[in-house]
Design a protein that fits this description.
CATH superfamily: Aldolase class I
Number of domains: 1
Strand content: 5-15%
CATH class: Alpha Beta
Structural class: alpha/beta
Length: 300
Amino acid sequence: MTLRCDLGELITAMITPFDKDKAVDYKSLEKTVKHLIEQKTDAIVVSGTTGENPTLTHEEEHEILYCVKSTVSGQCKVIMGAGSNSTDTAISSSKKAQELGADAILSVVPYYNKPSQQGMIEHFGAIAKSVDIPIILYNIPGRTGVDMAPSTIAFLAKEYSNIVAVKQSNANLDLISEIKMLAPDDFAIYSGDDSLTLPMLALGAHGVVSVASHVVGNEIKSMIHNFKSGQNNAALNMHKILYPLFKKIFVAPNPTPIKALLSKSGLIENYVRRPLVEVDEQTRLELVECLETALSQLNN
């Protein structure tokens, strides 16, 4: 099947490294990008939830995008988190992302003001009309307080050719079936939760927007490829090994657990911006043990 825009199967929602003064650490950002390329990521989302975008200034978001684009040098695609609960702000951010060379934007359902389905249609329609680059809708009712219906997703996909995919962060897998039934065949679905990647693939999802890919990207890529090539048992075995880690990295507010793991490897310093707080030492040790257990099983 040919997608209207193929952004890859493994997209990493990248963290934003900070230094001890809570300023963006651009040297660590470059190292993280290079590390993700080694982990076989097809695309990187900058300034998303995992990137702590609620505490980034617009100027920081733009500088991060510039830095990541320069570092990848065409080795993977770069997607900008450009959503807002203000339609005008989302349009402005989307235009800026296009101007700065983003390959696509990730646009979240408006949060806090809880729009109706018609409000979502008008919101995303206005964004789609304002830019030419591909748009991934982002449905995450646990954070926004409202769920985008499959019929709304399908309507937007049919109406706007640059709305190319949805990141679906909803554990109700019936909704994946409904989207597949209603949306055009060339419209892509991405799992928004690592632990649901394999089940969603079975229902026709294209891939995942992942957090765990910071540390097990190659393994997730292998799981996806095994499933799509008909090696279902191999895919299931990989899922079973990675599943405890998938759950563990969300034991505390994202991205605090994954930052703790990345700091253990020396890739970044373990700092987050308030109101988030770093995980405690016991949790950090449990995270490290969980990752080491998974890697040990993979090496046996």
